UniProtKB/TrEMBL annotation:
The lineage of its organism: Bacteria, Pseudomonadati, Balneolota, Balneolia, Balneolales. It is found in: Endoplasmic reticulum membrane. Belongs to the peptidase M48 family. It comes from Rhodohalobacter barkolensis. Zn(2+) binds at residues 274, 278, 352. This is Peptidase M48.
C-alpha cells in the first residue's frame, strides 16, 4: 500500500463520513414546530409530510452512498481496474480506442448498478410523496437519450483529451484545456436549442396577462428579452422551478409549467426577476470563468501525475496509460475537488442572495418574491430547518427561511 493508496482511500472514506455526519445532523435538526413565517402556507399535515420526505430521501442517500463506496473499494482492491485494462487492450484498437472501451465499460457498469436505485427513487419514493409524473417509457427514453449523447458528444471529447496527452508533448495540458474550454462554451450556446429540447418541450410563453407583465418588467430593468419559454416539467414531476440558460442570442428563461400553474402573475414576475438578477450581476459569466480556471489547474496537475508510476501501482496496474491515469487522478484530485466544491457552494449561496436582493428591489411588491419562495418550498416539500453543517456542504441555495428573513430586512 503506497502513499497514493493511502491518500485516495482516506479521501474516499473521509468524504463518505462527512456525508454520513452531515446527514445525521440534518435529521437531528428537523423541528416539529412549524416556523412562524410559514404558517400562512403550510398546514400541519403538509409540514409533517415535508419532514418525512427529508427523512426518506436521507435514508435512501445512506444506502446509495454506501453501495457506491463498497463497490468501488471491492473493484479496486480485487484488481478490477487492471483486469478491465487488459481486457480492453485485447481488442487492439490503439490507445484511443482502448481508452474509450476502458472508460466506456466503467460508465456502463455505473449506469447498470445505479439503474435499480433510479427506478426506486422515481417510482417508489417520488411516487409516494406525489411528485412522480414520469412514465416507464419516459424513464427508459431519458436513459437511452443520455447514453446516445454520451456517445455522440462525450466520446469524441474524451478521445481528444486522450490524444492530446498521448501525443501533445509538454504542452498537452494547455491544448486539452483550450479544447475543453471551447467545447464548454459551444455547449452553453447550443444546449438550449439543440440538446435540452431532446428531453423537454419548450414553448414560447403565449400572449396574455403574464407575458405582458414580464415584458413590462424586462423593459423597466433594460433586460434584452430574447425568449421566455414554458417547459413541460410536469412530464416528469410535479415539482416547480425556473432557470436561466445559454448566452448570446440563445439565452433563455424557462418557467416550468407547474410553476405557472401554482403561482400568481406577480409571483411569477418576481421569480423571473430573480433569474434576471443572475444575468445582471454576471453570475453565469463569473461561474464560467472560475470553471475554466479550475479546469486549467486540474489539467496542469494531471500532466504531472500521469508520469508517476506509483499512482498506477496504487491500483495494481501492469501498464501505465493516459486513459487510466485520467480516472486515477480524478480520485486523487477528489479532496481538492471537494474543497473547491464547498467554495463554489458558498459563492453560489452569495449569488442567490444577490439575485434575491435584485428582485426585491426592482419589482413593485417585495412580498411577491417572498410568497413565491414560500409556495415553492411547500410544493417541493423543502426542509425548512436544515442543519448549518449540511447547508455548508451541500446547499447551492440558502435555506428558504434565511432568504425570506434577508429580504424582509431590505
Amino acid at each position: 500500500m503506497n502513499i497514493f493508496t493511502i491518500i485516495i482511500l482516506a479521501a474516499i472514506l473521509i468524504d463518505y463520513m462527512l456525508g454520513i455526519t452531515s446527514n445525521l445532523l440534518n435529521l437531528k435538526a428537523l423541528d416539529k414546530s412549524l416556523p412562524d413565517e410559514f404558517e400562512d402556507v403550510y398546514d400541519e399535515e403538509t409540514y409533517a409530510k415535508s419532514q418525512e420526505y427529508t427523512k426518506v430521501r436521507t435514508k435512501f442517500g445512506f444506502l446509495t452512498g454506501t453501495v457506491d463506496v463498497l463497490i468501488l473499494l471491492a473493484f479496486w482492491f480485487a484488481g478490477g481496474f487492471n483486469w478491465l485494462d487488459q481486457w480492453a487492450r485485447g481488442f487492439e484498437f490503439g490507445v484511443i480506442g482502448t481508452g474509450l472501451i476502458f472508460i466506456g465499460a466503467l460508465v456502463l457498469g455505473k449506469i447498470i448498478i445505479s439503474m435499480p436505485f433510479g427506478i426506486y427513487s422515481t417510482f417508489v419514493i417520488e411516487e409516494r410523496f406525489g411528485f412522480n409524473k414520469t412514465t416507464p417509457g419516459t424513464f427508459v427514453m431519458d436513459r437511452i437519450k443520455g447514453l446516445l449523447l454520451s456517445l455522440v458528444i462525450g466520446a469524441p471529447l474524451l478521445a481528444g483529451i486522450i490524444a492530446f496527452f498521448e501525443y501533445g508533448g509538454p504542452w498537452a495540458w494547455v491544448y486539452a484545456w483550450l479544447a475543453v474550454t471551447a467545447f464548454s462554451l459551444v455547449m452553453q450556446y447550443v444546449a438550449p436549442t439543440w440538446i435540452m429540447p431532446l428531453f423537454n418541450k419548450f414553448e414560447p410563453l403565449e400572449d396574455g396577462e403574464l407575458r405582458q407583465a414580464i415584458e413590462e418588467y424586462a423593459e423597466s430593468v433594460d433586460f434584452p428579452l430574447q425568449g421566455v419559454y414554458v417547459m413541460d416539467g410536469s412530464k416528469r414531476s410535479s415539482k416547480s422551478n425556473a432557470f436561466f440558460t445559454g448566452f448570446g442570442k440563445n439565452k433563455r428563461i424557462a418557467l416550468f409549467d407547474t410553476l405557472i400553474e401554482k403561482h400568481t402573475t406577480e409571483e411569477l414576475v418576481a421569480v423571473l426577476a430573480h433569474e434576471i438578477g443572475h444575468y445582471k450581476k454576471k453570475h453565469i459569466i463569473k461561474n464560467m470563468g472560475i470553471s475554466i480556471l479550475q479546469t486549467g489547474i486540474m489539467f496542469a496537475l494531471l500532466s504531472i501525475f500521469l508520469q508517476v508510476p506509483a499512482l498506477f501501482d496504487a491500483f495494481y496496474m501492469d501498464e501505465m496509460s493516459v486513459y487510466a491515469g485520467l480516472l486515477f487522478f480524478g480520485l486523487l484530485y477528489s479532496p481538492v475537488e471537494t474543497i473547491l466544491g464547498i467554495g463554489m457552494q458558498v459563492l453560489s449561496r452569495k449569488y442567490e442572495y444577490e439575485a434575491d436582493h435584485y428582485a426585491a428591489t426592482t419589482i413593485e411588491k417585495r412580498e411577491a418574491m417572498i410568497d413565491a419562495l414560500k409556495k415553492l418550498s411547500k410544493d417541493n416539500l423543502s426542509n425548512l430547518t436544515p442543519h448549518p453543517f449540511y447547508v455548508f456542504l451541500n446547499y447551492s441555495h440558502p435555506p428558504v427561511l434565511k432568504r425570506v428573513e434577508t429580504m424582509r430586512k431590505i
